[in-house]
Design a protein that fits this description.
The radius of gyration is 23 Å and the shape is globular. The chain is built from 18 helices and no strands. Helix 1 runs antiparallel to helix 4, helix 3 packs antiparallel against helix 4 (121-151) and helix 5 (155-178) packs antiparallel against helix 6. The chain has two domains: 1-213, no CATH class; 225-503, no CATH class. The mean pLDDT is 85. By secondary structure, it is mainly alpha-helical.
């Protein structure tokens, strides 16, 4: 199967997964809020963010394993593949036991960190353990399959298995929350859905990679980028988990719930954007190890253009529709105020900055430049943590999200200079032009869309209609601009998409 065909499969299934994940992400918290209230919703969100820090015990294993598998997969070197996969499996098992220990420690400490008026300390202890089991299973079952399939540009298999898991998990949570079953018991029953995903991947790998064996001599040297990759993972974990953790410390569980609702929206949007980047790093990694610079530069130029085009469309729609959605979504939940113009601006700005660096960040992974970016990654993490503490102590969620924006802005500037120098050897002018156009289109869309679409949604159905109208307007506006001022780039992308369908 060619690279374009794999990209198409990966994109379609990732898009489907993101649709399912978004729907599940909107449905599940809504049922949790109405059944258990903001405090329980905030409690679960806070615990999950604490647990996500423990994924650092993976220590860059996934990135190192994927990178080390690019060449042997391209060369069809089955012996090398087996040795790397076996080494990864051994590391994952050791990391899994450390993860379990950290979850047990959190279960002992968390009841004293966050006070709840709804659950007693014993229930909170058990809830932490149950929520930690899901992450533990990732280490012991799923991880070794994910690395192999990602390196082989077959993330569509992972996506399909995850779709089944997400649907099953959502059904369990919705049905049991409607029955007002105890939250701890609900989370225990929901664990069964992850076993289904693991079984699907296990069967697929056994059938399609019949040469895979785990009894060979492990190639630990192939994982030498593991510790350097850890830095990149620290940044990603800090970026995702710090806000909820800092809010838990400086504010309240109800404010964590407010954060989780806005973050739910932005996670869905970032999920949509991941449709255009998932699996791409493996394709670029293959081109880099083959040394095909001409094809690499053309492919990257086209990818960067279309990615920024989609950022401008998706985030224009998001900026216009997020507050009406929050208002409709939290209707009837009156224990804390959810709608806030400042929150909306900060969350969307943070999302834009995060995605503006994605094309360059993807090349850091594709080229395995983990060691070379350690200092920058450390600075990015420090800006968020230190800034979050300084601004969060005084301004709560507003200050923490401002620090997150500063963190992503720094990384955008850093990668803008770093990637052309170290990887692409291309002029920065085209990237800067794409960024300026993207930000300009988002601003223009935000100020003009409400002038064209003159009604305000008051229910979920009217919001869907409103969002559809906004989407059509933003896509038309931005497309017309590109047809007029970026005609050649726009035509190249249309040709690439048409060729992709024909392959």
């Amino acid at each position: 199967m060619g690279r374009s065909k794999k990209f198409m499969y990966n994109s379609i299934t990732t898009a489907l997964l993101q649709v399912v994940t978004m729907v599940a992400g909107f449905v599940t918290p809504r049922f949790m809020l109405t059944a258990y209230g903001s405090e329980i919703n905030g409690l679960v969100s806070s615990i999950l963010q604490f647990i996500s820090y423990f994924n650092l015990v993976e220590a860059g294993l996934s990135s190192a394993a994927v990178y080390s598998l690019y060449k042997p997969i391209a060369d069809k070197d089955h012996d090398k593949i087996n040795r790397i996969v076996t080494a990864a499996k051994h590391f994952y098992i050791k990391s899994g036991f450390i993860f379990v220990g950290l979850v047990a420690l959190l279960a002992l400490c968390y009841p004293f960190i966050a006070s709840s008026t709804v659950l007693d300390q014993t229930s909170i202890f058990v809830l932490v353990l149950v929520l930690g089991v899901n992450g533990s299973l990732e280490f012991f079952t799923l991880a070794k399959y994910r690395a192999l399939l990602t390196a082989d540009q077959k993330t569509y298999v992972i996506s399909l298995a995850s779709i089944v898991y997400t649907i099953l998990n959502t059904i369990i949570v919705v049905v049991l929350s409607t029955m007002r079953i105890n939250i701890v018991l609900l989370r225990i029953i929901a664990l069964f859905s992850i076993f289904v995903r693991t079984m699907i991947l296990y069967v697929y790998v056994r059938v399609n990679y019949h040469f895979i064996r785990y009894d060979v001599e492990p190639d630990y040297a192939a994982m030498d980028k593991r510790w350097s990759a850890l830095y990149l993972q620290i940044v990603q974990t800090v970026q995702n988990a710090s806000p909820a953790v800092l809010i838990t410390i400086f504010s309240s569980l109800k404010m964590v719930s407010v954060y989780s609702v806005y973050n739910m929206v932005m996670s869905g949007i970032n999920g949509v954007m991941s449709v255009f980047s998932t699996g791409v790093s493996a394709g670029f990694g293959e081109l880099l190890v083959k040394g095909d610079k001409v094809v690499f530069k053309k492919a990257y130029r086209d990818f960067e253009y279309i990615y920024y085009f989609m950022v401008s469309v998706i985030y224009s729609i998001t900026l216009v529709t997020i507050l009406p959605f929050i208002e409709v979504y939290t209707k009837g939940v009156n224990d804390i105020q959810y709608t806030s113009f400042i929150f909306a601006i900060l969350f969307v700005s943070n999302g834009i900055l995060y995605n503006l660096k994605t094309p360059q960040g993807m090349l850091v992974i594709a080229a395995g430049l983990y060691r070379e970016t350690r200092i920058q990654s450390t600075i990015q993490a420090a800006i968020l943590v230190v800034g979050g503490i300084i601004f969060g102590a005084k301004n709560g969620l507003t200050g923490i999200m401002f620090a997150s924006c500063l963190s992503n802005l720094y990384r955008c500037i850093d990668l803008y200079f770093f990637i052309p120098k170290m990887v692409t050897q291309m002029e920065r002018k085209a990237t800067l032009k794409n960024i300026i156009i993207t930000i300009s289109m988002i601003i223009v869309s935000y100020f003009t869309a409400p002038q064209i679409i003159k009604f305000y949604p008051v229910s979920l159905i009217t919001w869907v209609v409103y969002a559809a109208c906004v989407s059509i307007y933003c896509l038309a506006l931005i497309s017309v601009f590109h047809i007029i001022f970026e005609r050649e780039n726009f035509k190249k992308i249309l040709v690439r998409i048409r060729n992709m369908k024909g392959k």
